[in-house]
Design goal:
The protein has a single domain, classed as Undecaprenyl pyrophosphate synthetase, CATH 3.40.1180. By secondary structure, it is α/β, with parallel strands linked by helices. It is globular and about 60 Å long. Strands 3-4-2-1-5-6 form a 6-stranded parallel sheet, with helices on both faces. Helix 4 links the parallel strand 3 and strand 4. The chain is built from 7 helices and 6 strands. It binds 3-methylbut-3-enyl trihydrogen diphosphate (2 copies) and magnesium ion (MG).
Length: 235
């Protein structure tokens, strides 16, 4: 890979456009979600090949609960099945699998499956793959603020710095994304990692998520490599 020199540590994806991909083919929206799983697999494999340490995917937002019941239940079923089907692959490639989000809203059976796979893969030292499920950035900041406020009451008088709140977010311990890629032509954050993307580079592509494979990923990484990250400083 040419962009080796400025390879990101953490690449995140807003996987969008599954429904439109299916509709363009005269199919039900769920077919787009099924095909989208193949894109996740392709991105994961490429990330392992290229030595990217952290890859995360926005799979289901808190707002997505407002979709029709049958789409929500199909998506939830698909998540459980897809992660179970990937377990051998995770173990073969040393992938650590993590789910982050408002787990209280997920079914007991899906939570049990998530715990099982997270537990089995927890000792793996290769790529960390994060699935954001029932996640929203505002929810994350709120739950962090609530817990931090609780601790501050117990230990008053401490100065509060941004890195203190970061430790209460569900992403604690995970480096902030260097690169965020959103597919399907939408140019918005849709309540994803609001706090963590303070200095993230964004790449927006018209490609629909089910069509986003290794070549599209490589192009996004090249675009990232050409960016000049200044973090508010002067170079
Ligand atoms: C992304 O594709 C998957 C989820 C949000 C779960 P969409 O389902 O949003 O597809 P479009 O944007 O309607 O095409
Ligand atoms: C963002 O996609 C959420 C996920 C990819 C999980 P949406 O399709 O829900 O976003 P909007 O509604 O177009 O902003
Ligand atoms: Mg969408």
């Amino acid at each position: 890979m040419q962009a080796q020199r400025s390879l990101p540590t953490h690449v995140s994806f807003i996987m969008d456009g599954n429904g439109r991909w299916a509709r363009e083919r005269g199919k039900e929206r769920v077919f787009g979600h099924f095909e989208g799983v193949e894109s996740v697999r392709a991105v994961m494999e490429a990330s392992v090949d290229w030595g990217i340490p952290f890859v995360s995917f926005f799979a289901f937002s808190e707002e997505n609960w407002g979709r029709p019941d049958d789409e929500v239940s199909t998506l939830m079923e698909l998540m459980g099945r897809a992660m179970a089907a990937e377990l051998d692959n995770f173990m073969e490639h040393g992938i650590r699998f993590i789910v982050l989000g408002n787990r209280a809203r997920l079914s007991d059976s899906l939570n049990a499956e998530i715990d099982r796979i997270m537990d089995i893969t927890s000792g793996n030292g290769g790529l960390t793959m994060i699935l954001f499920l029932s996640y929203s950035g505002q929810w994350d900041i709120l739950q962090a603020a609530e817990r931090m406020a609780h601790d501050l009451i117990e230990h008053p008088g401490q100065p509060v710095r941004p890195e203190d709140l970061s430790r209460y977010l569900v992403t604690a311990g995970i480096p902030d994304p260097d690169l965020l890629i959103r597919t399907s032509g939408e140019k918005r954050i849709s309540n994803y990692m609001l706090w963590q993307t303070a200095y993230t580079e964004f790449v927006f592509t018209d490609t629909l998520w089910p069509d986003f494979r290794k070549e599209a990923y490589r192009q996004a990484l090249e675009e990232y490599a050409s960016r000049d990250r200044r973090f508010g400083k002067i170079k």
